[in-house]
Amino acid sequence: MSFVKVKGTYDVLPNESKRWQALEKFVRDLFNTFKYEEIRTPMMEYSNVFHRENEQSDMVTKETYNFKDKGDRDLTLRPEGTAGVIRSYVENKLYANNRLTKLYYIGPNFRYERPQKGRYRQFMQFGVEAVGSSDPFVDAEVIFLAYETICRLGLKGVKVKLNSIGDDLSKSNYKKVLVDYLTPFKDQLSADSIERLNKNPLRILDSKAPEDKKIVENAPLPINYLSDAAKEHFNKVKEALDALNVPYIIDGKIVRGLDYYSHTVFEIEAAIPGFGAQNTLGGGGRYESLVEELGGPRLGAIGFAFGMERLLYALEMENIQLVNEERLDAYFIYFDEPSKSVSFKLLNELRQDDFKVDMSYLPKSFKSQLKEALDLKAKYLVIIGENELKDQMVQLKNTDTQIQELIPMNQLKEKLGVL
Q1: CATH 3.30.930.10 in the chain, residues?
Q2: What is the CA radius of gyration of the chain?
Q3: Mean per-residue pLDDT for 309-331?
């Protein structure tokens, strides 16, 4: 019997983990600059957090991992970050401070979908949620932050694709127009879209079925049926983005993949060789009813999320390095058990002062220890043999210049600190 990872998952090995850590640090530093604070929510929630009456997206209805625990409670592994964050926001009454609450998260999500390059069944996302205001300037700030995230990472050809699906009145009027357009094609729609035609026709615009895609290609667009209030909101968002010199294009076909969106929706793209048409790195939008749906007051919010695997893959394709080469300060080489014991003691004394040092714990020859030291890019070798031990000295060798000197053991810390 072989033991292998679950399909659609992956291991982050030590040589890759530094890239992940660097991206996470970059995200935290940037989001803190915009005064967003980190929130951490459970990877599993009670199923009703995601499986709500008004949420009929494929992500929720077809791609979630659902199970019962030993107490016969329905649980779901989170497929996206927003619903869990808003559940926590409501449960912990973060709205009581009567101000805009700006949160960010980094963590794993789970969806049962076809694995492909840069997409997995367990995947990492980072994102933000600005909760407690319907001000269009908040839309612009969030979009600007998403745009800045990708630009500051060094990716080229970054652009924002922008749309508005309007407020409740806009969506109500548009649904009637969309149903009128789709009804003559009813027999040609996929089974899922036929079911959605009267329940939630907007979901058909986001359908992945080839037969649906062909039909919706010429469908009327939500942006052409905005109420006066929704038009005013969208115009203010665009004006704010213009003031920030954020390049955007209006794409009336963007509706995003979740039903809670309203007003502004957007996606962030970059020109990545090898990505082809699938060059969207992330996106998000405004949602006005989710806080209320999850038991809180009716408050506006907007957020976005990026898939980290896809983003790291894009950076790799563009040869953008997030990690600077790290070198050991010193590597200890010993010849016998007594010199090994002294090396171990000196090594850990140096670590207490934040020196990056190491040694081998395997029985290795001088040559093998030397090779390991060079593989680890040690700046110095600390060599202790029988004679050095007797005289309480160490050989200190610079691996770059090859200069070697004999120094007292009790001066090693001082010498490395100066060097």
Answers
A1: 14-167+227-317
A2: 28
A3: 91
